[in-house]
Amino acid sequence: MPTQFLPSTKAHLRSLEGRELELTLLMPCLDEARTLGDCVTRAALFLQTHGIAGEVLVADNGSQDGSREVAERCGARVVVVAERGYGAALAGGIEAARGRFVIMGDSDGSYDWSGVLPFVERLRAGDELVMGNRFRGGIQAGAMPLLHRYLGNPFLTAVGRRLFGSPCGDFYCGQRGFARAAAVRMDLRSTGMEFALEMLVKATLLGMRVSEVPITLRPDGRGRRSHLRTWRDGWRSLRFFLLYSPRWLFLYPGLLLLALGLGLGTWLLSGARVIGPLRLDVHTLLYCAVAISVGFQLAVFSFFGKILALISGAHPPEPGTERAVRVLRLEHGLLGGGLLVFAGLYGGIRATVGWGMTHFGDLDPFVVMRTTIPSALLLMLGSQVICWSFYFSLLKTQLQMARQREADERRTDEEEALQWRGRKAA
């Protein structure tokens, strides 16, 4: 960017100080002195050219190469974020932003800060999150490693789209725009590279208006190794997706095991089955009982995982889960578990009597095992349900306390807002 633009853009930014702003152009920064000045200048010139009341904000995450001085010389406002991490820097920048809309992007020269008007137009049209899509806009030679371009990004984006139903085709694009109020509503918690994924996932789960615009990715100008690590960050992404989707991590595998165990086990209760060279008998029935037990536990883990995510704020409120928490009580679990234990004891007694008869050669042991295995399964499931019921009660209490704290905070915020408006009117 020619340096003659710098004085006028700095003057334009200074003229907006103290005004209510429409747009904040946010750049997280960690030792980007080599490219930061050009990015800030392009961003400031964009605001000036299009007559947008905005600011260029650099969230510095502990640079030691003079990046802060470069940003300030070029007219940017700098906020220092002490907590290390890409997500922490962005969270600090969003908190400090004065604009109604925020467009974030890297400060390494890989994104064109003079071409963000499509983001602004979509935000003005009411979209709450606007994602850039580098695959639709173009990736210049050398701008993205081949492994990321043809395997990592497409695969992990496909996983994210499948798990969360997002329409976006580039989950990892670092340039995106959003309404600041929407970011506050998302209540983003990640401090590392997962921050960008959390933003898109939560926007989708909350039913926000999400769109995407094509952008071009250029080779970065940092002249050093990227902060990203291919395999480590790929695993962190996959882990994040799974932890944010207890249905896919626990519920669906659990239901599949339950269906297989119940279906095949019921088929084997009446006797051995022969399928070609295979003979399925009580040994297969035992594995069916294991499948039912593991599947049942996975399904319960899915429910508990969802409650824990609601308590921590990792997931947005979900009416179905919260309704189930309100309806279910400790006594329901104790009653259901007690019935299962009683049924298991009854079957165990019958099996014991039958086993005594086999001692005198009057009964096939395999016939007894067809009672013993289901009885043992019922005893185990009943005991688990009783224990889980107490744990569920603890989680329910924690969720109620979290919801009460949120209500108290909202009430306090509303009271402070009323007091502020009252003072302003006076």
Produce a short descriptive summary:
Helix content is 62%, strand content 11%. It has 15 helices and 9 strands.
Structure in words:
The chain is 62% helix and 11% strand. It contains 15 helices and 9 strands. Strands 3-2-1-4-6-5-7 form a 7-stranded mixed β-sheet. It has a two-stranded antiparallel sheet with strand order 8-9. Strand 8 and strand 9 (278-280) form a beta hairpin. Helix 11 packs antiparallel against helix 12. The radius of gyration is 29 Å and the shape is elongated.
Determine the strand fraction and express it as a percent band.
5-15%
How many separate helices?
A: 15
CA-CA gap between termini = 49 Å
Tally of strands? 9
Which percent bin holds the helix content?
55-70%
Please, what is the average pLDDT?
87
Flag low-confidence runs: 1-5
Characterize the overall form: elongated
- Describe the largest sheet: 7 strands, mixed
State the secondary-structure class.
alpha/beta
Q: What pattern of helices and strands is seen along the backbone?
A: HEHEHEHEHEHHEHHEHHEEHHHH
Strand order in space, largest sheet? 3-2-1-4-6-5-7
Radius of gyration: 29 Å
